[in-house]
Amino acid sequence: MKRIVTSSQVAELLQEQLNVWELARNNYDALKQVKVKELAFDNFKIKVQFNPARIVSSSAKIDTKSIQERKCFLCRQNRPVEQMRIPFGEDYEILINPFPIFPKHLTIPSCKHVDQRIAGRLGDMLDLAYNIDEYTIFYNGPKCGASAPDHVHFQAGSKGFLTIEKEWRQFAIKPVLEFQSAKLYILHNYLKGTFVIESDSKENAVELFEQIYASMEVKPGEEEPMMNVLAWYEADKWIVCVFPRSLHRPSCYTAKGEDNILISPGAVDMGGVFIIPLEKDFDKITAENVRTILSEVCMDEVALKKIADHIKPAL
């Protein structure tokens, strides 16, 4: 497969943006000083990053009224004049995210203003993972961490940053099913229900994902099953992590007093790095808080096994 965009081209874009865009430069400089701590669980760790610049995303209002009253910041005509782009095919543009979590952080919006949906787009996500293979690509569902649910987009961050990238194999005991060259795993005792697809065929990976998608419940008032998705390309294979969700935000998000923790989990949190925009919350969050948050917003292994059982006859 020929790459239409490379990681080195994206690196050049990032450097050029840091040279001319003060907001981005200041936030990437500040990222070097963010506080990070680790919380230990059984055979794995979750990192917690105190990142005050992410308050905009964590506290984003995504109700219909709020969205209608603001301009879409992913549409080209509403972006900062400093923001440059690299076209990715005819449908997407690669942008530098000026509010980074990763040392290199991208936003990849569609050229069209259409609602955030993953249906029919996993192949695009895998194409991105292949082309800019120094990055992990991620998708946040419209009520699963996305701060722009009205404009379909992916994000990408430096590969190797998320703990799940190194950990997942030790929790993947055996495939729950196989479809040609693609294998589907459910991670065992991993605190959050996680499907992992491993495949050297884009088409096979897409087929497995579409079966998962079709087998998940769509909640009343929603347009698609709630989920976060991560994808990366390594050793000539795609790895896709799917995190089915049961809730948008945990109870601590709206709790009062000391019980309040401002966190709106997305794909990065699911991947093992919790992003906390308030220092008071960073200082007090514990492993037990994380366990509670994940138990509230994620499905468990039992629920994922039911989904997998529903898939088997279809394949």
TrEMBL record:
<dbReference type="InterPro" id="IPR058865">
    <property type="entry name" value="GDPGP1_C"/>
</dbReference>
<feature type="domain" description="GDPGP1-like C-terminal">
    <location>
        <begin position="181"/>
        <end position="312"/>
    </location>
</feature>
<feature type="domain" description="DUF4922">
    <location>
        <begin position="13"/>
        <end position="157"/>
    </location>
</feature>
<dbReference type="InterPro" id="IPR036265">
    <property type="entry name" value="HIT-like_sf"/>
</dbReference>
<dbReference type="InterPro" id="IPR046320">
    <property type="entry name" value="DUF4922"/>
</dbReference>
<dbReference type="Pfam" id="PF16269">
    <property type="entry name" value="DUF4922"/>
</dbReference>
<protein>
    <recommendedName>
        <fullName>DUF4922 domain-containing protein</fullName>
    </recommendedName>
</protein>
<dbReference type="Pfam" id="PF26216">
    <property type="entry name" value="GDPGP1_C"/>
</dbReference>
